Amino acid sequence: MYMFKYVMKRLGLMIMTFCIIMLMCFVLIKLLPVVITVQQGQDANIIVQRLVARGYIQNAVLNPDGTWSYDRVPILIQLYNYLKRIFVNGDFGVGVTMPAYRGASVIEVFAKNLPPTILINLYSTILGVPIGLGLGIFAALKKNKWQDQVINVIIILIISLPSVVMGIIIQYFLCFKWNLLPQIMNSGYDYFSWSMFKSMLPPVLALSLGSIAGYARYTRAELSEVLTNEFMFLARTKGLTRGQAIFRHAMRNSMVVIFPSILSEFIAVLSGSLIIESMFSVPGVGRLYLNSITYQDYDFFMLLSGFYCLVSLLAGIVIDISYGFIDPRIRMGAK
User: Fold this and answer.
1) Which CATH superfamily is domain 107-295 in?
2) Which of 3, 187, 289, 293 makes a 20 to 30 Å CA pair with 252?
3) pLDDT tens digit string along 233-257?
């Protein structure tokens, strides 16, 4: 009952937080001037009329010098029309200012670009978790020995480098200098072919190396502390071997902190993939999100902001609830 009340309370706070954040995003993006980009062979009048049709501007007039004058539709009216389109018509909008997606359905483009983002984050997690935990466990068992010192130096070096710098290093050595991997991700939708997987490896490595260092640091710190607790000596005096005491008692207690850190690290990787996707030409939602900000494409920006915001808020709830499942002594919501 305590857990149910706690989850319901957190869900209510999550919905309220989500609405506040999205309202702030809507107001802030609407306060910026409308960007009208016209490429060769495109008619600026068509683009302006789309902006008028979507209810962004009104009274658009072409000036003699070739510039456009317009009046902004009041923000509250735009907000009402936006919410009405979503909840009444199921219309999340169409692309207006991004040249590659003008007139395209926002939700369809989002669904098409979501698999690459999910896959590179999933692959980086699958690669990072076992290697990071293994290095952390090994360093904790070899504490203050040369193996531990070497692992600590590598962890510090990797953590000190942002994922962007890591991506540049991978591009130079693995893709350009040694020609082991392609420099950009392959186009197409055959995501589970060997050629596509190989082209995903550079961004996966750029994202997973930081995660490996983070997992190793958390695991070493927590496991080293647990191994020095009194209950570990008690377990050994009762006849358990060192390996049994570590895996039955030490690992379970240290996972109370390590497992939530895995979930939080996944969110950090998801956020870091925004830049990595652009570096390696990954056709994912992260690259799409950055382009929507650059071109101020309102509907794309709102949908993608909602996606990243919702993922972060849900992850926070999952992390808190996971404490109760990992350690039965923890009861969320109990006084």
Assistant:
1) MetI-like (1.10.3720.10)
2) 3
3) 777 777 777 777 777 777 777 777 7
